[in-house]
Amino acid sequence: MAASVVSKAGVKSGGTVVKGKPPSRLAFERFMRNPLAVAGAIILLAIIFITVGAPLFTHYSPSVIDIMNTNAPPSAAHPLGTDPSGYDNLARLLYGGRVDLTVAFSAGVMTLVIGTIYGGISGYFGGWIDNLMMRFVDVMLNFPFVVFILFLEAVFNTSGELLLITVVVLTSWPASGRFMRGVFIQLRQQDFVIGATTIGAGAWRTIFRHMLPNTVGTLSVLVSFAVAGYVGLEAALTFIGLGLPLSVASWGGMLSEASNYTAMTTQPYLWLPPAIMIVLTILSVNFIGDGLRDAFDPQMRS
Amino acid sequence: MKRKSTLFTAAAVMTLSALFAGYSGGIGVADAATAHRSPVTNGGTMVQTFPTAFGLNFIPFLSTSAYTAAATSYSFDSILRFNRNDQVSADIVNKWWTSPDKKTYYFQINPKARWSNGMYITTGDVKLGVDWLLSKSYNVTDGGSYGYLLSNVVGVPSSGYLPDGQTPSGFKILGPREFSVTLQHADAAALPANLVAITPLPTYILGKIPMSQWKGTPFDRHPWIGSGPFITTSIVPGQSITQKANPYYVLGAPHIAQNVWKVISTDVVNGDLASGQVTMAAIHAIDVAQMKKVPNLNINVVPSNGFQYLGWRLNNATYGSVFSQATFRQAVEYAINRPAMVKALYAGYGTLENGPLPPINFWYNKSLNTYPYDPAKANALLNSIGMKIGAGGWRTMPNGQPFTPTLTISSGDTTIQRQADFIQSFLQAVHINLKINPPINFNTILTQLNSDSNGKQPIQAFLLGWSLSNDPDPRGLWRSTDNLNIVTIDWTNPKDPAIQLNDKLIHESHGKAAYNINYRIATLNKWQALLNQQLPENFLFDANNVTAYNKNLHGVVFTPYGNLDPQKWWLSTGN
Amino acid sequence: MTSYVIRRLLGLIPTLFIITVIVFSLMHLMPGNAFQALIGLNPHIKDAAKVIAQRTANAGLNLSWPQQYVNWIVNLLHGNLGTSFEFQEPVTTLIGIALPNTVTLALTAELIILIIGIPVGVFQANRVNKGFDISTSLVAVFLYSVPGFVFALFLIFLFSFTLNWLPSMGTVTAAVPWSGDLGDRIQHLILPATTLALPSVAYYTRLMRANTLQVFFQDYVRTARAKGLRSTRVLFRHVLRNAIIPITTQFGFDIGGLVGGAVILEQIFTWPGMGELTINANLNRDYPVILATTLIFAVMVLLGNLFADILLASMDPRVRYN
Lengths: 302, 575, 322
Fold this sequence. Notes:
The complex is a heterotrimer of chains A (302), B (575) and C (322).
Chain A: H1 2-18, H2 23-32, H3 35-52, H4 54-57, H5 89-125, H6 127-141, H7 145-156, H8 161-171, H9 173-188, H10 191-198, H11 203-211, H12 216-239, H13 251-257, H14 261-266, H15 268-296
Chain B: H1 3-12, E1 13-15, H2 32-37, E2 45-50, H3 66-75, E3 80-82, E4 88-90, E5 93-98, E6 104-109, H4 123-134, H5 136-141, E7 171-173, E8 178-182, H6 190-194, H7 203-206, H8 218-221, E9 230-236, E10 240-245, E11 258-263, H9 269-275, E12 280-282, H10 288-291, E13 297-302, E14 306-312, H11 320-323, H12 326-335, H13 338-346, E15 350-352, H14 375-384, E16 406-408, H15 414-429, E17 435-436, H16 442-450, E18 461-467, H17 483-486, H18 497-508, H19 517-534, E19 538-539, E20 541-543, E21 545-550, E22 553-554, E23 557-559, E24 562-564, E25 570-571
Parallel strand pairs in B: 1-18, 2-11, 16-17, 16-18
Antiparallel strand pairs in B: 3-4, 5-6, 6-8, 7-8, 9-10, 10-11, 12-21, 13-21, 14-18, 14-19, 15-20, 22-25, 23-24
Chain C: H1 2-29, H2 35-40, H3 48-58, H4 65-77, H5 91-126, H6 131-145, H7 148-162, H8 182-216, H9 219-226, H10 231-243, H11 245-259, H12 263-268, H13 274-284, H14 287-315
Helix pairs in contact in C: 1-14, 5-6, 5-8, 5-11, 6-8, 7-8, 8-10, 9-10, 11-14, 13-14
């Protein structure tokens, strides 16, 4: 039994190399053959483009108030109306993605990179390393970040983007770290990993070459969920008074502002556009994640 | 911008005097015409709302929650009330007079005044209410904040409280229905600001319990007896309070059989109103246009009895020399387009404020300068104090140093943030380089204000608001010795003749001579004119109270101080 | 097993110690406390600074903070969590109101999540890239893209205001004889629990689908299929058992996390719970409540994780208790 396991594992990792093309190239080709994934990538690129290139699409600034023109319904000059500060809602929508995408991107990266490395090490090595690392995750999962933000605010007399990023950095990785640990513990017991270690693969090689590709599916869900969660987070922080200043446009902020009965039922132009942008972003991240999983997952290939 | 205010209103708009004793005003009755024409029907359930949770203590004066106090005010009446013209009028007490030296007040309880179980209200019940307000348990252990109401009564030590159950010598029982209160000093504000709030408590229930145990006692958690129009029948903490009509209510048994207070978020309440699940609720001014389209609703708008202001730390170490010049503050007042702000922030449903009392107030001085929006005049005034326009187009200090004051605002309230943005743009238009600090937690702002005696805290300008009591008594807020003056604007320089005059006028406004209403009006007019000219802070405006209510509700008297006479409201059926 | 659980329970103590010490330090490094707002803004208190100092001293805030920490621990061991500065009520009373509401809501939501999330995910994987899979996947992604409060308002609008089927606020109906009956409580639970569960349902579905797909291609499943075992039997015997393992981890901290409360949903549905209590305490510097809520939240999360670890070990015989 042990011998057959070894040989299977060997064939598996050897198989890709024999074909002559580098694995990343193969993965790319597979990704490009997946229509949903390609559509996702195109939508995301388009969103990034209109967000970064916002000045190309509107001559209004998202942060110049106009007291004589507040709460205006849609018109030719303001296709989505204006908000209570007199900001043009279309400009807010176009520029707003900058904050949301930054937050989502940092959350995604933290979830992906720190979460995977942390969980991988913890789950692979086990024993006291695992124990120690998980106790630290316990602390971080319970880190009193609201008190921490209030503390930063009181001591440094500041608020805004910096605090938002702090929250992202503090809160986005521990859960995924713990989750990935569970995945790695399970993988550690799998035949091909035992096989790899038996034939003498080092710890890092085992983690990254053999185990990581098997987690892509789970990771794509974790990351797309992190992206979704942290777009909502901005709105939630605004709600508890720790959000961004008004001069910074964001989809979460626009949505949160319009989330009351009257706006929901009578002014869809206030909340529908940011909601669509958020859904599109997350949908495309999700399709890309699925595509990547299909492209990289060694077992899906066969 | 709406959701946040629910969490922060309590903190951001502070209450100068949260008397729940009486309401008053003279604004008008909900569909007064129909109220008289159509026959009044009895019965029905009315639902009103609080935007956030209420407190857990229902013995009068115990809770710090304004919502608990509102519910309590339906169950317990004080001895006197304010009518719709802001005048003290009869309630549980129906006759009262003063001694010639104006120090002793005599009261007579209405022979019809009863508890909701039919027992008569006696002077013993009044005495218990007085003892409670002055007890050590209430003032020290429970941290009660209404002990001041009786601190001027003879026999009350300077500590402001007595041992539990001890009655001050100034309170005398003259008979089962007569009592008197003697003051240490004659004070024209004593009756309307303080004594009206004395609230009888049921001796036969609370008299048996030591005051140290009142808090948390079953009667405190759920008072089943009361003297007000509606008596509590059930309480679900954090959610609802149900009250039924008191058939023995001294001002007449209510028409409506049951009143329910529900906690409903302001984000949702408009839907509850439209669907008829809530009978009456306060709504946001900017929703008025949409809510007027809802067929089953009426909208009422009354000005509020309060004001918001832009304050400057007059003792600021860096810019205090500029802030403390009245000319600078006058320039700021002219520079800000307040009507535009009211239109933008409150869809026009707001009232401009030009002095320390709002225009709706009975005592308002109608001849005040209204400081119309006039940037040219603002520029001229700033030029006149030597603040020249320097590099970059910004004004400098008279000595040529850069002038970049900062405005500190609290986080969580987007209306305040918008207000700050608008003010900044108006001041920049007159070349004042005002910067807005990142919004910070309200408690952090308080900490800075409380420790700013040297003027070196980061806070330089700020936005605050006050809601006022029925009586215009300026004490507590405006004297140079008042804590709330010191820790907000710090308009306290003893050498400033205007401040000396301010203290003198305030003193005169409540002395013995002020028992003459014309004298009191004249003094308060002078005082308002002084503050209107000096502008110790830049008075801005206040949002109006906007109430939406179902068309089947009739007879509500809407006033700046609340909705009066719930016993006269009634619900029509078949709507 | 028992000794493992005991060891892990003891292991919670240092973690709780560190968490509470962090909260304690942060609180005491911040200037000011709740009394400034409560007393400093009362125009009728003559010497506010003195009263604030007195109340601060009475609350024990003048002691050195290690001393305060020790006092807090001693009180805690006596079941005393202190008195809220803001509400002047024992913290245990406040938590006694909030915690049961939150736990009820969290458990109901968790039940909905498991009942819907796991089967849907497995069926999606079983018919991967077929109509059912694609349509439900799209719905799932949509559900977790839109913030919960948007759904909350939409559900209230639909089921309460328009159809009038379900109550929009509270845990019980006010002022009716049947107030607080089981049926009454369940009616009130439906909307908030559904709203709280929706994003997680989507998340579990996605996770379950990904896990199941991964397991499908494992050798033993292929072997089982090759041996001719019926696919439903394979699905339940071999696939589900293995695919569900990572979910248990998630389930573990979800239990803890949901108990932390959802401030916005609590406000929209008037569901007096831990979320609002916690946030209010934080914003108002109500230290005893901050400490108590942090502690309860931490204990819940840690127990949830412990529970997940035990599940993980008991479901997967290859994972040892070590």
